[in-house]
Automatic annotation (TrEMBL):
Protein species of origin: Avena sativa (Oat)
Domain of life from the UniProt record: Eukaryota
Protein name, entry field: Uncharacterized protein
Length: 417
């Protein structure tokens, strides 16, 4: 009898342990099973922002993002295109960043991905006559029926795949005849910031709509954004601000429900800051990028209206640091216990405001000596670093995913699938 009782007690203890341990194991297993994967179909002269923003924004949320293209291997690069209106009747096309492919196209099994993104630009023209690329788009549009994002000119791929019929679709205005000839229903891109959803197919005019694009793409992938309660984030900028370092976090945070603003002490609301492009390993090779718009007058900026200030790099910090009110504003954010975030040459403002003393700091080559002179305790040569919960620094734009991830966490935002 005692033996039976002992066996019963041991069995009961084992069941209790399973009840204590299994939920965590199952949650961990489920989390791994729910890891999302997104594929970006790349090509020469794809629009720079339209590949970079989803690549870094989604990676910041823990989503695996693969970039692949026919005829390219991991490590190969594509030249992107900057499409911007510069005072002519049609947009101008300028050379953008060299974007690196990180996945092998033949091995890209459509069924292993949760969404497909096809950036706009002229890349879609060549891809539209590539049988493998067209087959990939068709798989998402018609067979798998998983989220498919087409921006600017890449809606041509949907027509090439024979999957446009009956789809409500927007695009850059010159694509209207293509949409209608292919049997789609044209939706005017008014305002430019809209993203049109038709079942699992998402379309937009292009990069001006990235905040809404990210919101709808995450929703289509089954995500819930928690804690995005309109946190105020102010970007300080000026002419020759780094193209990626200003735009990518600006659009990413807006897509997660933050209220983002951009201010410059020498410009008014509605003015444009010209951006600069610096490719990796080409410190002296500066190219003109997109325009980055000022959204608020300097005199209307009040620290209490924001939770965070972001200082992008490029050459604009050289201008901002000569304006005492800009340096004072950064210092006031820190004094009020707000989150201060800087990337690359934005550290010059941190140094001028005395915010690096004793702090861990990630700094690229241009700012490494200056960070040390300003008293940074540890200067990391790459990556992104959070020192406590009030200072985030990153070395350069290749570290944008980690930089944005720190901002999202410290602003109290989570994305759950």
């Amino acid at each position: 009898m005692r033996s039976i009782n002992l066996k019963y007690l041991l069995l009961l203890h084992a069941v209790q342990l399973l009840h204590c341990i299994d939920p965590e194991l199952m949650a961990s297993s489920k989390k791994m099973e729910m890891k999302k994967k997104v594929l970006i179909l790349c090509g020469d002269y794809m629009e720079d922002y339209e590949v970079a923003v989803p690549f870094y924004a989604l990676a910041a949320l823990g989503i695996t993002v693969h970039c692949a293209a026919p005829g390219k291997s991991p490590g190969d690069t594509y030249l992107t295109a900057v499409h911007e209106f510069l005072g002519y009747d049609l947009y101008s096309e300028l050379p953008g960043h060299h974007f690196t492919v990180n996945a092998d196209f033949p091995a890209a099994d459509p069924a292993s991905y949760d969404a497909l993104i096809v950036p706009g630009g002229r890349s879609g023209e060549q891809l539209s006559i590539d049988a493998e690329a067209v087959s990939l788009v068709k798989a998402f549009a018609s067979d798998l029926r998983r989220p498919l994002l087409l921006t600017c000119h890449s809606q041509l791929m949907l027509a090439a795949a024979g999957a446009m019929a009956g789809v409500r679709c927007t695009a850059f205005n010159s694509l209207r005849p293509v949409v209608e000839l292919a049997g789609g229903t044209w939706v005017e891109p008014e305002p430019w910031t809209i993203c049109v959803s038709h079942d699992h197919i998402l379309t937009s005019l292009g990069w001006p709509a990235h905040a809404e694009i990210l919101r709808q793409l995450l929703r289509a992938m089954g995500a819930r954004v928690l804690g995005g309660r309109g946190q105020g984030v102010l970007f300080l900028c000026g002419d020759y601000v780094d193209d990626y370092e200003a735009n990518v976090p600006f659009r990413a945070l807006a897509g997660l429900g933050c209220r983002v603003e951009a201010a410059c002490p020498t410009k008014r609301k509605g003015d444009a800051c010209v951006t600069a492009i610096y490719d990796v390993g080409a410190a002296s090779d500066e190219k003109r990028g997109h325009n980055f718009m000022v959204t608020i007058d300097w005199d209307d900026v009040h620290v209490d209206d924001y939770d965070c200030v972001v200082l992008p790099g490029g050459r604009s910090p050289e201008l901002l640091v000569t304006h005492s009110k800009a340096v004072a504003l950064v210092g006031e954010f820190a004094a009020r216990g707000k989150l201060v975030a800087s990337i690359d040459q934005g550290h010059l403002l941190l140094a001028a405001a005395g915010l690096l003393k004793g702090k861990r700091c990630a700094s690229g080559v241009p700012m490494r000596v200056i960070a040390s002179l300003a008293g940074a305790a540890v200067v990391e040569p790459e990556g992104a670093v959070a020192d406590g919960n009030k200072l985030v620094t990153a070395a350069s734009w290749p570290n944008l995913a980690d930089f944005i991830a720190h901002l999202v966490e410290l602003l109290g935002i989570t994305v759950a699938f």
